Structures are given as C-alpha cells and as structure tokens.
Amino acid sequence: EPSAAAGNVLLGLTSLVLPALITALHCVVVRDLGEGRVPRLGEALREAAPRIAAAIGVVLLSSAAVFAGLVALVVPGVLLMVAWYFGAQVAVLERLAPWEALQRSWALVKGRWWSTFGALLLSGLAFTLPGTVMSILLTTIGNGFVYVVALTLAQAVTLSLTALFGTLLYFSHRATRP
C-alpha cells in the first residue's frame, strides 16, 4: 500500500495543480493553433503562468461548491459542475478573476446545459475509465515514490485529454456566445 503521505501529495497534485496547469497550457496552445500560430511550449508556459493562480482559484471555488451541492442534494452539485466547467478556461483566456470566470462559464453554458452535460459525460467516460484502470493497477506498486510518479504521469495523460476536450468545447461555446 502506498503511504498516506504519498496519497496526500498525489491528491494535491491531481486535484488542484495539474488540472489548472494542464488546462492553462491547452488553452494557450489551442488558441494559438486556431489563430494560425505554431505553439511553443516555453511561450505557452510564459503566457499561462500568470493565470495559473486564477485557474487554481477557480478549481478550488468550484470544487468546494460542487462538493457542497453534491452533499446537499446531488442535483445542485451536478448543476454547478456543468455550469462552471469552463471556469479555468475563462480565467486563463479571458483573464478574469475566479468568481467572474465562474459567472462567465455559467453564461456560456446557459441554454445548453443538457448538451454540455452529455458531452462532458461521454468524454468523462472515454477518458477517465482507462485512467481509473491504470490507477487500480498502479496500487500494486510497493514503492511510494514510484507510485506517485507513475500515477501522476497516468493522471497527467487523462487530465490532458480531458483538458483538451474541455478547451475545444469551451471554444465551441464561446464561438456561438462571445
């Protein structure tokens, strides 16, 4: 079994830092591609870096509210999870503070909640299921360091696919509701 410390480090990385970082980078890269520019990792990191704190703020705020909604009655948590899904993309690309980014995400999803929910559900199944299987397989590793590194890499791939899909869906929503 991995140690509790290894599990806590992994939880912090996979629930706050990695999603914000990966989403921020995907936002900048997809935007650059859409504008006909060849994305460069260094440039994408430099541009995204100042917005990562706002993206982490969005993830913290939305996660707390979604958790509270899920505990309360489940439905409010699911409603917020979908309505605020684009918060990190908005924080990075539209340069809004966390609360304003969540409000903007709500506006982008308004009138398209069910189609957004369906797209997120299908992508979640497609991207998360293989990652979950990999996570289960990795629990057999006895070395805490190797476990954290391997699971972080597996989660990064899953998060990358999820962030790419979410970013493309964000641009789709934004194109029809600027």
Describe, in plain words, how this protein is organized in 3D.
This protein has 178 residues and is mostly helical. It is 84% helix and 0% strand. The chain contains 7 helices and no strands. The longest helix has 33 residues. The chain is globular. The termini are far apart. The mean pLDDT is 82.
Supply database-style keywords.
mainly alpha
SSE layout:
Layout: H1 4-34, H2 41-72, H3 75-83, H4 87-93, H5 98-109, H6 113-138, H7 144-176
Helix pairs in contact: 1-2, 1-4, 1-7, 2-3, 2-4, 2-5, 4-5, 6-7
Short description:
The chain has 178 residues and is mostly helical.
Q: State the major sheet.
A: none
Radius of gyration: 17 Å
Helix content: over 70%
Outline type: globular
Topology as a string of helices (H) and strands (E)? HHHHHHH
